[in-house]
TrEMBL record:
SUPFAM superfamilies the UniProt entry points to: Clavaminate synthase-like
Species this protein is from: Algoriphagus halophilus
Pfam family, one: PhyH
UniProt keywords, alphabetically: Dioxygenase, Oxidoreductase
Record has Oxidoreductase as a keyword: yes
Cofactor(s) the record lists: Fe(2+)
Protein name, entry field: Ectoine hydroxylase-related dioxygenase, phytanoyl-CoA dioxygenase (PhyH) family
GO molecular function: 2-oxoglutarate-dependent dioxygenase activity; iron ion binding
InterPro entries: Phytyl_CoA_dOase-like
Length: 321
């Protein structure tokens, strides 16, 4: 019933092996390759299921899916083992260096999205194009299966990735917001966010917080992402303010939380002794179209308004047949 585009037959796997050889050759070339050219895994970091039975072990329970639809989020989904966490941390160390030779491939790069040097929030988009580990995490089967189920058992396309990193002792907050308020250049609203920690995320170091049920409030105005924490609350009705009861979501490293595109969420500053590093994968259901004649992401060719979002920057990563 479900499978990935790259695992349809042995010929595809053979082509992938050749692509990986080409990729290794390109690493030695002065102009290294943009990894968005590869719409399938290029390393063995994540073992790929080959049968429906192998996919089943990643399947969410009906109770988990029901919890997501009722509350707007689902937490505690294991995505990474210790070795994968280590590899991704090493990758983060490399791509966060502004002198990285492929730095120009980022859609956005903010060493500190906050204007306050005492509240640092590293935030970037586009690192999947630069490092093979961040490229291949998009094809993590646990992530793919959960994404398809939470989108209503639909085929899934990649939207964009993000890094959110808060250093120890002076890490900044992420203001209360809804993801889709920044994504209205796409329709229909059939998106999903996955947040996964590379460190243990605690209330002390700025874990994610949700407002359960807020995904039913409709679309709100967007605040500055690293601005005043409570800017969004000035836009709420009296009833919404009564329902504004944050729930902290601490997670062990390697565990993820998924949330609805209208879920109100944010995270507080990190004054602890421990860093809080995380990556985010954003996806949408196949069939989503562009709602603008402007670039959807910096450095990505324009997809005219009304045209389906597809191509190498928005690859189909999971297909339902």
């Amino acid at each position: 019933m479900y499978f990935n585009n790259y695992a349809k037959n042995q010929k595809v796997m053979t082509d992938q092996n050749q692509d990986f050889v080409n990729f290794l050759v390109n690493l030695t070339h002065p102009k290294m390759r943009d990894l968005s050219d590869y719409s399938h895994p290029i390393t063995d970091l994540f073992e790929q299921p080959k049968t429906e039975a192998e996919w089943e072990k990643y399947r969410l329970s009906q109770d988990q899916v029901d919890f997501f639809h009722e509350n707007g989020y689902l937490s505690g989904i294991k995505l990474l083992d210790e070795d994968q966490i280590r590899v991704l941390k090493e990758a983060l160390e490399k791509v966060s260096n502004p002198k990285h030779p492929m730095h120009h491939l980022f859609h956005e790069f903010h060493s500190n999205e906050s204007s306050d040097p005492n509240q640092v929030l590293f935030h970037s988009l586009g690192h999947w194009r630069i490092h093979p580990a961040f490229h291949d995490v998009i094809w993590n089967p646990a992530f793919l299966m959960a994404s398809s189920q939470l989108l209503g058992d639909k085929s899934v396309r990649f939207w964009h990735d993000q890094l959110f990193c808060k250093p120890a002792k002076h890490g900044g907050n992420v203001a209360w917001h809804q993801d889709y308020s920044y994504w209205t250049r796409t329709v229909a609203m059939q998106h999903l966010t996955c947040w996964c920690g590379l460190d243990d995320a605690t209330e002390a170091n700025g874990c994610l917080n949700y407002i359960p049920g807020s995904h039913r409030w409709g679309l709100l105005d967007k605040p500055a992402l690293a601005g005043e924490m409570d800017g969004l609350k000035t836009m709420l009705t009296e009833q919404q303010l009564k329902e504004f009861n944050p729930v902290a979501v601490p997670l062990k490293a390697g565990y993820a939380t998924f949330h609805h595109p209208l879920m109100v969420h944010g995270s507080f500053a990190n004054y602890s002794e421990n860093a809080r590093r995380a990556f985010v994968l954003n996806v949408f259901a196949d069939g989503t179209v562009s709602d603008t004649n402007e670039p959807l992401l910096q450095g990505v060719p324009i997809i005219p308004k009304g045209q389906k979002m597809e191509g190498k920057f928005f690859p189909k990563i999971f297909e339902i047949k």
